[in-house]
Design brief:
There is one protein chain. This protein is an alpha/beta fold. 38% of the residues lie in helices and 24% in strands. The protein has helices at 52-58, 93-100, 105-110, 115-124, 127-143, 159-175, 198-215, 233-246, 262-269, 282-291, 299-304, 313-319, 339-350, 354-360, 363-368, 396-399, 424-429, and strands at 2-15, 33-42, 45-50, 59-69, 74-77, 79-81, 146-152, 179-187, 221-226, 249-254, 273-276, 294-297, 323-325, 386-389, 406-411, 414-418, 421-422. The strands form two sheets. Strands 1, 2, 3, 4, 5, 14, 15, 16 and 17 form a nine-stranded mixed beta sheet that branches. An eight-stranded parallel beta sheet has the order 6-7-8-9-10-11-12-13. It is globular, with a radius of gyration of 21 Å. The relative contact order is 0.16.
């Protein structure tokens, strides 16, 4: 018999998504659902997923086990967000109002707004303010069902400030249940003090930021905003190559506002991901598919920027590109922590099926942050990162947009959201690690 200290019984649907490989083409829509099923975990890991009859024959619950009745509810893996700009200070609602009045992203940036506005606020903020902001965002993410996230620096743009943001992410990780996968985004924008000497700033990123972040083990990835007005293709190649030499795997913002060859560069470098891709060329996408580079699509950015050119998800899927979804949480162009909204937008604006969007927000997202052997699906041996949603079918994730359907979140076998309320501090207070 298999012992269990956490049991979920009689779920309307258990969306398992079993396997570690990225879902491609038709496989992206294969969710592998157990109807009326049960799940068991022990010491933080899943030990059983199957039918009620199999459960009763194979599993014995310990006397102190928590038993959760999931009747008429959906059980699925925790959402994995592979693209966030988590640490920042300040707010840019006035820029949002300017966009509503007709100003473009480029016009706002040229007048001193955009990324540099947040850079000024972040540099001025103290560590306590920044850490508090990170933790508040993580709480909102957890309530929305995100159990693992990638998080970028990028609003410091000096070596001390970029390293400070990465250190604060490490502090946040120690205090919060969500697993944080850190990325150095020193090449987010050229700061004002280097405006007249771009080469000096690129040298600072490649010869100081990257080596120090890597040596201190503060980052796993190196990212760059490869875009007209930010960093050119040649500059991006130099920065990401320096990151690779230091042991930081590349990922990049690519082809968001213009078609600049970012998808091709991602394939050339064997990047973990190319993100955005609203203007990616067919040749670039073909190369990404061949190189196994994940396309992290961010429909919230197009939505909030009021653009009609969403990433061509249907084309990418048909071409064999691995597709993942992220929130692009940031203060300027997509200030939301809701992966459920991204699933709805992926279906309503990018032509994805609900099944595809669910897989893109779980198993495929876990692939691009190299956690697919431990999270992203519900199967024996993987971490018990589990959501319970108050809906009878996963289809409601897109059918009823704008609603948080998550009622319970389990991270590593511990209940961290209960009855739509954060509970990880309460659980820790009872002797359970948070």
């Amino acid at each position: 018999m298999t012992r269990a200290d956490l049991v979920i019984v009689d779920a309307a649907q258990i969306v398992t998504l079993q396997g570690n490989a990225p879902r491609l083409r038709a496989e992206l829509a294969r969710l592998e659902i157990v109807e009326g099923g049960c799940l068991a975990a022990h010491q933080g890991h899943i030990v059983f997923v199957g039918s009620r009859d199999e459960f009763e024959a194979e599993v014995v619950a310990e006397d102190t086990a928590e038993v959760i009745d999931a009747s008429d509810q959906v059980v699925m893996p925790g959402f994995v967000d592979p693209h966030t700009h988590l640490p920042f200070a300040g707010s840019r609602e006035h820029e949002f109002a300017r966009r509503l009045a007709g100003a473009t992203y480029q016009e706002i940036a040229a007048s001193g707004g955009g990324i540099l506005s947040t850079v000024r606020a972040t540099r001025e903020a103290g560590d306590e303010e920044l850490l508090d902001g990170i933790l508040q965002r993580l709480d909102r993410m957890l309530l929305e069902g995100i159990t693992t996230c990638e998080a970028k620096s990028g609003y410091g743009l000096t070596a001390p400030d970029e390293l400070r943001l990465l250190k604060l992410l490490k502090q946040a990780q120690a205090a919060h249940p969500i697993e944080i996968v850190p990325t150095l985004l020193g090449a987010h924008w050229v700061p004002p003090e280097h405006k007249s000497d771009r080469k000096a700033y690129i040298k600072l990123v490649t010869e100081t930021m990257i080596p120090e972040a890597a040596a201190s083990k503060l980052a796993e990835y190196c990212d760059v905003f490869c875009e007209a007005g930010a960093f050119s293709l040649e500059e991006s190649r130099a920065i990401l190559s320096a990151g690779k030499r230091a042991g930081l795997e590349p990922r990049l913002h690519a082809d968001q506002l213009s078609s600049g060859g970012g998808a091709e560069l991602a394939a050339e470098l064997g990047a973990a991901s190319a993100d955005h891709l609203e203007r990616a060329s067919d040749e670039g996408l073909k190369r990404m598919a061949g190189a196994g580079v994940t396309a992290v699509l961010l429909p919230g950015a197009s939505f909030c920027l009021m653009k009609e050119d969403y990433a061509a998800a249907r084309k990418m899927i048909d071409m064999g590109v691995a597709v993942a979804l992220g929130t692009d949480l940031n203060p300027g162009t997509c200030n939301t922590e809701s992966m459920q909204l991204m699933i709805a937008l992926a279906c309503l604006r990018m032509g994805m099926r609900v099944e595809e969007a669910v897989a893109a927000a779980t198993i495929n997202a876990s692939v691009t942050i190299r956690r697919n052997s431990t999270i992203g699906s519900l199967e024996a041996g993987k971490s018990a990162d589990i959501l319970i949603l108050d809906i009878p079918s996963y289809l409601h994730l897109a059918y009823r947009p704008g609603i948080n359907h998550v009622t319970m979140v389990i991270k590593g076998g511990q209940v961290v959201v209960r009855d739509r309320r954060l509970s990880y501090e309460e659980e820790a207070g009872e002797g359970t690690p948070g």
